[in-house]
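Table 4 source record.
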Amino acid sequence: MGIKNKKVFRRNRIKMRVRKVVKGTADRPRMSVFRSNKQIYVQLIDDQTQQTMVSASSSDKSFGEEKTNKVEQAKKVGKLMAERAIAAGIKTVVFDRNGYLYHGRVKSLADAAREGGLKF
């Protein structure tokens, strides 16, 4: 097993361990974060109906094209997500870090979403 496969395997184990506990409902959806090397994506998911209710990412058209570092990008995505969620009538969520450490981009996205008005 190569290094890449070990990292992916480890993250998937952590992800399943967290997912056993964290469940999203219609009134309190799961806020799932995915980060790639260049972008960051976040979705509000209702696990009962398996539907994505609201989503935001750093590759959205409304996000803009100005150059920023990845932590600043994550902050903007968190604020954008909070705006869209509140517009959809969602105020409380369950945070799912998706196997990533709560550090860096994931933490800045969560903090910005809290500042934007989401509760978790």
